[in-house]
Specification:
This protein is mainly alpha-helical. It is built from five helices and no strands. The chain has helices spanning 3-44, 49-77, 80-97, 104-136, 138-161.
Length: 165
């Protein structure tokens, strides 16, 4: 491969990783902001602390348990984009709809739905990242993505709490 082709591949791979990283940054800003107030929100809607704990635990169990299925389906179907986008769309609707839940039962469904969306998208997204990082270096590529992801995970809850500081 000549130098120009390699440079073009490297630039495209870097752009892909950065764009997926910014997608993760903004997604994390929204769902981590929501997660930071889920307990208080469920309390306002009339649940107990025990229910909050069960919901959080069940959401994590479902979220991590579904990843093996999502990863398997991603590899079997090779529809990485479709599966990734489906997971993001579930989050796109479940997180904002929490503001309109009105009933703790609906809020619980939406909280768990958010975890399902993350479970669906993560294996497929990470598989695509593994291809994209091949050109730029896997450690650097995953590190860059994770830095953007964690930046969003930090900014989201800070923005939610800023009015109360």
């Amino acid at each position: 491969m000549n130098g120009i082709q390699h440079t073009m591949k490297l630039e495209a791979a870097t752009l892909f990783v950065v764009l997926i990283g910014f997608t993760s940054l903004f997604a994390d800003m929204t769902y981590e902001a929501a997660r930071s107030i889920n307990g208080s929100y469920l309390d306002i809607l009339g649940t107990s602390g025990t229910t909050v704990g069960w919901v959080a635990g069940l959401g994590e169990l479902v979220g991590y348990g579904l990843r093996i299925i999502s990863g398997y389906l991603s590899d079997k179907t090779k529809k990485y984009w479709t599966i990734t986008i489906t997971g993001y769309v579930i989050n796109l609707f479940s997180v904002p709809l929490l503001a309109y839940a009105g009933y703790w039962q609906l809020a619980i469904i939406l909280i768990i739905s958010e975890r399902v969306g993350k479970a669906i998208r993560t294996p497929a997204r990470d598989a695509m990242l593994s291809y994209g990082t091949k050109e730029m270096g896997r450690g650097w590529g995953f590190g860059l993505h994770e830095a953007l992801d964690q930046t969003g995970a930090t900014i989201g809850p800070l923005l939610v709490s800023a009015p109360f500081l």
